Amino acid sequence: MNAILPPSPVDPTSSALLAQLLSDAFEALDGDIDRSRLALSRAVALVAGVSPAGGTIGQGVLRHWQVRKISALVEAKLEGSVRITELAATARLSKSHFSRAFKAHFGRSPQQYVLDRRVARAQQLMLASNCRLCDVAQACGFADQAHLSRVFRRLVGAAPNRWRRARCVS
Predict the structure, then answer these.
(1) How many C-beta atoms lie closer than 10 Å to residue 153's C-beta?
(2) Mean pLDDT of 25-36
């Protein structure tokens, strides 16, 4: 039988920080999904009692130089294959340690991060040009237009053409 625990005392500082993180996440939902995820990840970490550095106590975290190099490599290789072994080598970490540290820092797996970046690039291309979706898919590293459409719909909540039409004023 599960016992109901009494609520723990509320720390005013933590409560204010949690409110600010949730407010930031809510405001960023429409425009900056990365900012929203980061704020929600930090809010979850605060509630779960993990260290403010972004990792659970006892787990490694990514250093600033590692984050910069990883982000640059992902952006440079979006149209091709982005492998975890290559990302881990760039950060000078083993694959397993890298995966844990990456998830602790970014709040999602490396694969999900790459998909998010591909969709963000697709959004930029769709707004900046009149490229066909099959060309956008190829430029962003998707297998084909159907793959772009499936992932885009799952992450953004709308089909790519519908999303583009709603934002283009022509």
Answers:
(1) 14
(2) 70
More confident residue, 4 or 112: 112
pLDDT of residue 58: 40
Angle at 44 between CA 88 and CA 159, to 5 degrees: 75
92 found inside a domain:
yes
Q: What angle do CA 27, 28, 32 make, to 5 degrees?
A: 160
DSSP string computed for 80-123: S---HHHHHHHTT--HHHHHHHHHHHHSS-HHHHHHHHHHHHHH
| Closest by CA position to 159, among listed 141, 145, 139, 144 | 145
The pLDDT of residue 68 is 94
In eight-state DSSP terms, residue 140 is T
Residue ranges making up the domain that contains 77: 59-105
